Every structure is written in C-alpha cells, then in structure tokens.
Amino acid sequence: MAAHDIIVIGASSGGIESLMEIVSELPRDLPASVFVVVHVSPSGTTKLPEILTRAGSLPAAHPTDNEPIRPGRIYVAPADLHLLLRNGKIRLVRGPKENNARPAIDATFRTAARSYGPRVIGVVLSGSLDDGTAGLAAIKERGGLALVQDPNDALFPDMPRSALESVAVDYCVSTQEIAPLLVRLANEPITEIAPPVPEDMQKESKIEALDMDTIEDEEKPGTPSVFGCPDCGGVLWELQDGELLRFRCRVGHAYGAEGLLEAQTESLDTALWSAFRALEEHAALVRRLAAEARKKQRINSAKLFEKRAEAVEREAKVIRRLLVTHTQNQTSKGVEN
Fold first, then answer.
1. Mean local confidence (pLDDT), 269-294
2. Residues 18 and 158 occupy one common structural domain
C-alpha cells in the first residue's frame, strides 16, 4: 500500500539550521525520499549535501539528471538548476526562474504534486517573502500533506506565515517536532485517491521543464495582467489559486505577489540609480562644453550651456531625493521584518 514516501522541503534565509536539526533526527531506515531546495547563489558552490550528511544518518548529495529516486536518501537541488520530479526519476533543468530563484521551491513542490499526489509531504521552513506557498498549495490540491515550521520558531517567518495565510496547512509545528512527525507520516499508509492533475498545473510543470510546445502555446494559464515581467519585460499572466495570487510570463518566469513586489522594488532602485548617473554625466558634459565656449569667447553659447547644466542638475537633485527616500523606506522595512 502506498505511503507518504516523497518529502519535499523548501527553505531560504535562516533555514539551514532548521534543516540540520531535522536531518539529525531522521533514521537511516526512513521509508521515504527527501528532496531539499534552498536558495543559493547561481554562481557559487554549496556544501549543503556534505553538511546534511554529517548532521544525520541519511546520505545527502546533489542528484544527476534522470537519476532514479531511491528511499533513504536526501537529494539537494544544485545551484542554478531546478530540481523537478517525474515518476521514478529526477530532472535537473535550467528553466525559467520563480521568484527570481533557481532552484525554486515552488517548481520542486509543484512537480512532486503532479507526479505523486497524496504520497507527497511538503515542508516550508524559515525564509523571506512567499516562496513555497504556491508549491504547497499544489501539493494540497493533489491530496498531499502540508507541513509548516511555526513562524514563531523561524528566524525569518515570512515563508511559513505566507503558507499559513494561503494554504490549508495540516501541521504547524516547531523545528524539534518536524522530524518525528515526518517519520510517523512516512510509515502511515495512505488511502486517498489522487485528484486529477489540473490543466494549469500540467502546463506550469511543462513550462518549468522547458517544454517548448507548452511555452509557445498561446493558451497560457491565467489571464493577462497590466504588469510586466521584471526578468524579461514580457506581459505577466495572473493566476488566482483560491486566496493565492501569482503571476507568470509567457516564457515561464513566475512570481508570487510578494515576490513580484520585491522584484519591482529592485527594478525601481536600479532605474533610479541609472537615471541619477545619466543626469550627473550629462550635467558634467554640458558644464565642460560651457567652459570650452568661455575659453573661445563664445559667451552666448557658454550661457546657454550653463543654463542647460543648471536644469539638468535640478533634475538630478530630484532623483537623488527619491533615492534617499526609497533607501530609507527599504531600511525601515528591513528593520520591521
């Protein structure tokens, strides 16, 4: 009889400590496979498999593409690749980012839900913004179980809190309670019949796997929104999953509402600094032309250049004030969080 033998865990800021504690309590004979997704720099290397192997009894490693899934192992998503689950094997794909992340928690969770339905346990640990919420919703939609670290126990409570607000979570427990709960659930048989895979979930899973027929299909999940994709500039399509608002562009970049807000904020910051730099450089060039004109006794031209430089410098001051206000707002937000 089938059991909860697919455990997917997502973590971000502050999640490594919780992961180590959970792994340290998982037995060597765990009748389940564990898949871990942690946000890492795309250009860096991670020692997380070695850390988790030393922390507990289960061997942890970065999988290879098309590697068969075996119980009693921890598979850690490598940098800059989505870890996707297909029936009986793992796919590693450099697909479109989700919430500006690759590997993305939602991509792993969603493909686990699609392939394994009620056999899946999704776990959301400490982290910022709303990563993992959409994937956890997909797991619940396919009959799986949703487990969330108690936000009061998390160093960064945003991810667990977002999941609790948007998903009918089955368990909300402290880090110390997660491993015993996973062991118990992994040994319990399941009797639920998996609901059909929704069409939108099918399409999104194929987009994440870079299926070009699906990416080029004009029938996109959701409805067109008024927002542009921060990654590529394309139109974002709006998806409403119950209480959960999400966005995905035609080539596959995906965002939760909070993730999109964060990406827009970063884009705004970049745009403001670019505008400030351009204005400062323009003012400097016009001042140089004014000085050259005065050297050549072209007084009228020099005055015109100086007047133009003053106007540009006033515009630069406006942008500088915006930058100061924007930076103060972001700093205040960080302190509140």
1. 92
2. yes
Annotated catalytic residue within 4, 18, 33, 39: 39
Q: Which residues form the domain of 249?
A: 212-256
Active site annotation includes 24: no
Per-residue pLDDT reduced to its tens digit, 210-227: 888 888 888 888 899 999
Torsion angles phi and psi, residue 106, rounded to 5? -60, -35
Residues 6 or more apart whose Cβ sits within 8 Å of residue 93: 81, 82, 84, 208, 209, 210
pLDDT digits (tens, 9 = 90+) for 45-80: 779 999 999 999 999 999 999 999 999 999 999 999
Q: Are strands 89-93 and 82-86 parallel, antiparallel or unpaired?
A: antiparallel
To the query of whether residue 225 is one of the catalytic residues in this protein, the response is no
Q: Is 200 inside any structural domain? A: no
CATH number at residue 42: 3.40.50.180
131 is an active site residue: yes
- Please indicate, yes or no, if residue 207 is contained in any of the structural domains: no
Q: Which residue among 4, 5, 12, 153 is the active-site one?
A: 12
